[in-house]
Input
Amino acid sequence: MHTKESFYHDRKIKGSLCFAPSTSMYIGYQGEITACCINKKNVLGRYPEESLMKIWTGEKYKKMREELRSFVFSDGCRKCERLISNNNFATLKIPFHDRTTPNNFNLPERLYLELDNKCNLMCTMCSGKFSSKILKHIERKPEYKSPYLNDNFLDELKPFLMNAHYIDYYGGEPFLIGIYYKIWEFLIKENINSQQYIQTNGTVYNKKISDIVTNLNVNLSISLDSVNEDTYSKIRIGSNYNLVIDNLLKFNQILKNKNKNLYISAVLCKDNFKELMEFYFFCQKNQLILYFHELNRPRNLSVYNVEYDDLKNFLLEINKKIQNIRKISNIDLINLETIISQIKFLEKIKLNLENTKDSNFSFINFIEKHFPYYLKITKDKLAESQVTDFDVSNSIEFKTINACEETGISNHLFKEILPLTEEQYAIKISEFFLSLKKL
Output
């Protein structure tokens, strides 16, 4: 299992922090093109303003490749940097791009397709960006106009589909998105051996879908945030728990017949973190591979919003259960222990934050200890801004404050971990920046 130090040593040997811009292309539902599904900030081009081929061979792609080969995290890569710093390697996507050797950048070997936001659910942690139903009924905004409705896009995509070894499908709900069926029909004829990764909410199952999963080389992941019906229904609004479990078992059987595993993708949040053990054993019983992803937004649903005592008691209880399991079984607990380690990390932060009421508490020392990567980025941003003074009462208006939003330090610490009002936020971040200027 990696540590932060061994990971960076391994990347030095490989020759790049990440090969995503050398091997991959993400195509978003509003025409935005990026290097992967995690970094959606560093937009490398837009379709149909530019062709897919022009974007792939363009200067922005080249610059990102060069930065990562120079061991500099490119713009928008901060989430992966944070996962590494927290030793959370189970959900890190960087190794996905090491599976094949870059082919002189002729064409990407992995495609991430997120071509529509059509969805039948309104999950509590989701937004209209990923759910057409939320966009219409909660945000009350007009539906997005897809740039991929004409046949020209599919014709332009076909050479990329022919070359691809791996293709990932997101939504919305992929099994409700019409253009994906055209892509799957093409692949069955022209590139049937390519690996398809489909992330579904599990609500849709019929013969057509069964045939696609059977005939293509499909790796399937179902979003399931709880195996408790009440908790599941609270999180995944509009779904039917029993129907999803029934569909899950059908999908699982198809994949077992092909000697494949079904994956479960779960979002760890305030409502379900105490059910970790129950969830884990459900997956063990049905031979499912479970992965948890931490939820940062919305803040009120995040584990960051759980009180310190609740986290402490939970960790004490689950650690006892794990110790008892190890006495009687050799069951693989790596994925479970990885997400528990993230909760332990949060518990330490919460404990330290209890000291913020102490007049001797140094917030900058706290950040330097727990979030050194954010500290460096923010200092670099401050140096670029050339701002030398801060007015606490008006700090929220300063361009430096806005510039530092993109570093993640203000969003992640001041807005999510600390329950601050806007005024308190302005004061706290001003004090923080002033401290940095004195270093």
In short: The two ends are 36 Å apart (CA to CA). Residues 308-328 form the longest helix (21 residues). Confidence is low (pLDDT under 50) at residues 386-420. The chain is about 50% helix and 10% strand.
